[in-house]
Design a protein that fits this description.
By secondary structure, this protein is α+β, with helices and mostly antiparallel strands. The protein has a single domain (18-129), classed as YggU-like (Conserved Hypothetical Protein Mth637, Chain: A, 2-Layer Sandwich). The protein has helices at 5-11, 74-87, 114-129; strands at 18-19, 29-32, 37-47, 53-58, 61-66, 94-98, 104-111. Strands 1, 2, 3, 4, 5, 6 and 7 form a seven-stranded mixed β-sheet that branches.
Length: 132
């Protein structure tokens, strides 16, 4: 079954231009939306830790230790809450795109402007450079 082009265009958000992540932040992608900036963040989640924190790089993903257990979506909720607090946005601006049942996840974080996106990318570069 094929959908008409009008329907396909309505299924997802329209994204305009791509922006490159700064050097040293491999695997991070950002895109400019109509009025906000979107940061796609690959995450390697480690649930059941003593505290929730960024813990360096795991390949090209940011390793995040989560204090929540991996049951009933508690770890995913803790990850979304951590990302919202870490980037200073409401939880409604953070979305889990992939990996709801695994450790490898992709978050989408909507930031208000390009200055906030640049600050977020700089913070990510610091977290990725930190030893695990």
């Amino acid at each position: 079954m094929t959908l008409p082009a009008e329907t396909i265009g309505q299924l997802g958000r329209k994204r305009q231009s791509r922006r490159q992540a700064p050097d040293g932040v491999a695997g991070l992608h950002s895109r400019v939306l109509m009025s906000a900036c979107l940061l796609k963040l690959p995450v390697h989640a480690t649930p059941g830790a003593k505290r929730t924190e960024a813990a360096g790089a795991h390949g090209t993903a940011l390793r995040v230790r989560l204090a929540a257990p991996p049951v009933d979506g508690k770890a995913n909720a803790a990850l979304i809450a951590w990302a919202a607090a870490a980037f200073g946005v409401p939880k409604s601006q953070v979305e889990l795109l992939h990996g709801s049942a695994g450790r490898q996840k992709v978050l989408a974080i909507e930031l208000p402007d390009e200055a906030a996106l640049a600050a977020a990318q700089q913070q990510l570069a610091q977290w990725m450079a930190a030893p695990a």
